[in-house]
Task: structure prediction
Amino acid sequence: MFKHVLAILSLLLFTHPATSAVTIEDGAVHIINDTTYQSDLVILDRNIAHDPGTQVDLVTGGEVQSFSAENNSTLNIFSGLVTTTITLKDNANLDISGGTVNSHVTGTQDSHLIVSGGTLDGNIQVNDNATMDISGGTVNQFIAFHNSKARLSGGTVNTSLISRNDATTLIEGGSPGTLLFTAENGRIYVEGTGFTVTDPNGLNPVNVVDGDHLSNFGTFVENGDFDYFGGFLSGTLDDSTIINIAFEIHNSGVTAGTCDIIIGPIPKCGDANHPIPTSDLNEDCIVNILDLAIMAAEWLTDNNPI
Result:
């Protein structure tokens, strides 16, 4: 299975060539509602960073071969068609609420991807500190890696949901596909109730609760350099979706690390297990010189009205 996943990931390196490139970087809002750019790569803010950046809205009737959004620009897909790829980087923003993308969507370098509708026939991927939030629509494969943050609260993943290379993914709802896959320090958190883990044959059920790591419950599967802990996870997600999905946790061989699939929410400063210390004045869960600076700035301040 791991080799199959690698083969799918390799497809992301392929980009269909555009007949021509059109650059839009005037900081204005543009609406594409026809086929003017059906053979073009449309590039947003390649050479300049506006605040806010250039915005393009793809609406009904609009057709573009591919998009590249950079430098704070924003691409909104309400309807229409993108026949090949969408790439984002350098704090660019993508919001898909409708329409169709026939190939892959990739966000890197602090870009932000939001999907609430539409159909993505290819894979959606984030890396290099990018974020992804999917609450609707349909995607082929969901991939998060290289320190990215991703969330699935709705919508449908057709194949696998992958979190690797120090990425963190939260599953709250929706249909997460047929396989949860972690490797190389990636983490997946699953929120819901009534979870049970079985072995790869669907036998020997064991109940798991918040805080449990599935690497402690999965079956060790020898697979050459790609040994993993696997099985099936079943239960009900926070949005009441019932799942029964295979999982693979690759913590040995060439993918060794501390990856895992964990039941419960992502740990954060201020939660029940990580309370904010009394002396933590800026509430970052660390008591250090920054808190001392806050106190020093108000040293001897007296607001006592008496």
